UniProtKB/TrEMBL annotation:
One of its GO terms (biological process) is response to antibiotic. Coiled coil: none annotated. It is a multi-pass membrane protein. It comes from the Bacteria. The keyword DNA repair does not apply. Residues 28-231 form the ABC-2 type transporter transmembrane domain. This is ABC-2 type transport system permease protein. One of its GO terms (cellular component) is ATP-binding cassette (ABC) transporter complex. The chain crosses the membrane at residues 46-65, 77-103, 124-151, 157-183, 195-222, 242-261. Residues 11-21 have a biased composition (Low complexity). The lineage of its organism: Bacteria, Bacillati, Actinomycetota, Actinomycetes, Micrococcales. It is found in: Membrane.
Amino acid sequence: MTSTPEHRAATHPTTPAATRTQARGVAIRAYLRLELRRTLRDRRTLLFSLVVPPAFYLAIGATAQNRSTSIGPDTNLAASLLVSLALYGALLTATSGGAGVAVERAQGWTRQLRLTPLEPWAYVLVKVLASMTVGAASVALTFAAGLLGGARMPATAWVLCALIAWCGSLVFAAFGLFLGYVLPSETVVRMLGPVLTVLAFAGGLFLPFGDGTVMAAVSQVMPTYGLAELARAPLGGGSVEVVAVVNVVAWTAIFFAGAVWRFRADTARV
């Protein structure tokens, strides 16, 4: 028996829910391609994300003293500095998405997105994916500089530290988005770099604070603290304090909830 188009349509009907899901998927893929092209055209972001971290490692981290100073089995001080700079580069890349959001808000672009199948969570997801794509390149280039510059750590640590630094930047992708929704574009552009630098130092990313000090206690509530501890954990055998994990989970939830909340509020004013 030959099936007719009417029979096939009756057998496999297209429901409104399926149509909306398909349209949403098409919109997400199209917007992700657009966002990646926009990110790759941003020379300032690419410079500070892809060039500065590996250059800083080669200039500051790859000294003879750092290469010869051992901090653990088959691990030198240069490796610890390498991980910190790789994480910083990934965080810088992730937060840069905030400036783009602020500009889009000023142009009314986020309100226009309400006319598309792209929902608030999908818009945030696309921004995060684009930022983390460039962040992966930043981590890879910085670790390549580490290979050339004498960083020494176990083979598993090379892989785990790179993955944690990259995945951990998810927290600051949400942070950049949140700032982009709350602040004007001019303010975001000026603030992102200095704010991230302060958070990096306050959270012990570049120079961990001694146990029992006031700054050691303060650093534990900073968004950078948990990420720094997790990223460097493979260098010391993988031991991680519970407070570091709680720190990462809490700040990720706060920033993502804030970004979605502000996006809904912004697009509601049509």
